[in-house]
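RECORD TYPE: inverse folding
INPUT: structure tokens
STRUCTURE:
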């Protein structure tokens, strides 16, 4: 034990601090432990969030299916309501044509919107960056021209 403690004392610097090699080794171990802990925390957080998102998405799908069934029931009610004043086949035909027209109009508007927003490029950001780049270039050129004129 005395040999070990005297060896440890010999490894101390003049100020009583551990040598640089020991400090750097301890630092490396602490950084590895800290990074490993942060990664574990990140994984746990993201797993919980993914689970919550999955449950929310599942509930949303079930809700949309129920809404779809509700619309189907309303369409059937519209056909049955028209069937009180018109023959049933004509009531179903009228409701079907109206649904197809509304669906077609929505499809055309949707396609037009998709084509209008088809470029997923942040145009304003690109313009701002390009403008900054051009301004920087012009500043550099004017400084260069000024130096040449002075020489």
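DESIGNED SEQUENCE:
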């Amino acid at each position: 034990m005395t040999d070990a403690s005297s060896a440890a004392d010999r490894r101390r610097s003049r100020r009583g601090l551990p040598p640089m090699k020991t400090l750097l080794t301890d630092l490396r171990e602490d950084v590895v432990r800290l990074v490993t802990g942060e990664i574990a925390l990140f994984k746990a957080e993201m797993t919980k969030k993914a689970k919550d998102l999955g449950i929310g998405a599942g509930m949303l799908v079930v809700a949309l299916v129920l809404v779809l069934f509700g619309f189907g029931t309303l369409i059937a009610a519209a056909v049955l309501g028209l069937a009180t004043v018109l023959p049933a086949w004509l009531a179903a035909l009228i409701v079907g044509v109206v649904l197809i027209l509304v669906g077609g109009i929505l499809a055309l508007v949707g396609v037009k919107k998709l084509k209008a927003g088809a470029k997923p490029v942040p145009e304003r950001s690109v313009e701002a960056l390009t403008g900054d780049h051009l301004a920087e270039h012009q500043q550099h050129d004017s400084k260069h021209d000024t130096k040449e004129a002075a020489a």
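NOTES: The longest helix spans residues 20-82.
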